[in-house]
Amino acid sequence: MGLWMRIKRMFFAGTGAALDKIENPEMVLQQTIRDMRERVPELNNSVAQVMATERLLAKSREKLSEEVVDLDSKIKASVKMQRDDIATTYIGQLQQKQLELQKTSIQLEQSVIASKQALKARDNYVLNMNKRTSEAIQLISASKQAKLQEQLAQTMETFNIGDDASTFNEMREKIDRRVAAAEAKLQLGTSSVDTQMQDIEREAMDIQLQDKLLEYKQQMGLLGSGDANSAGSKQISAASDSDETNATDGALLDKSKET
């Protein structure tokens, strides 16, 4: 093998490898679909021209048939009037028209066959185009899926699970410490003296409301003396229980301050 042939082979091999890397299958398939669709109007135009020729030949044959019938009538009329010279002229014209009619009929038959073949070819092309388009769409979808899988594989290769796991654990510990501190502050806030005083004031307000309600009922005669005494004793016992609770809470608070 000569040196030039070896260089030529290496050049084409390198060029082909470079084109394989640059060539995008999705773009090639999309361009192929566009090219096939752009040919459809050209095919329709060609079929329309063939069908137009068929229609013109059909009209021409119809006109020639009418002329043949008309010349035949004129020949008969000339013979009846004993005008052989005129009849002879008409006979010559009739033969010419009959010859044209015969040729036109043959052309029309050929044109009808050509129209059918053109329509069939157009339909076959459209059917094949739709089939190829469907295949191309599936291939494009598969290409996109393969590209996504390649990107995911590259991401997984560069993903260091150990470093990220330690980061997650560190952040989890920080969040747990913040949550614990917030819960402790909330517990201290709910057990403070201010909170206890608010509870006492709320309970005192409830007692006053109950006293007012009993007063209204007594004024309206809805309570007897026994009911009023029992209601009063209940309020006194509730007040004493509240005082005992407050005394206990105060003692616990003082003890916590001493410690």
Please give a quick description of this structure.
The chain is mainly α and 259 residues long.
Determine the fraction of residues in helical runs and give it as a percent range: over 70%
Mean pLDDT: 76
Number of discrete domains: 2
Beta content? under 5%
Poorly predicted runs are 255-259
Count of DSSP H/I helices:
6
Describe the protein's architecture and organization.
This protein is mainly alpha-helical and 259 residues long. The protein has 2 domains: 3-159, Orthogonal Bundle (Helix Hairpins), CATH 1.10.287; 191-258. Helix content is 93%, strand content 0%. It has helices spanning 3-22, 25-80, 84-158, 161-190, 193-219, 225-258. Helix 2 packs antiparallel against helix 3 and helix 5 packs antiparallel against helix 6. The longest helix has 75 residues, at 84-158. The radius of gyration is 55 Å and the shape is elongated. Mean pLDDT is 76; it is low at 255-259.
Task: Please write out the topology.
Elements (H helix, E strand, L loop, with lengths): L2 H20 L2 H56 L3 H75 L2 H30 L2 H27 L5 H34 L1
Helix pairs in contact: 2-3, 5-6
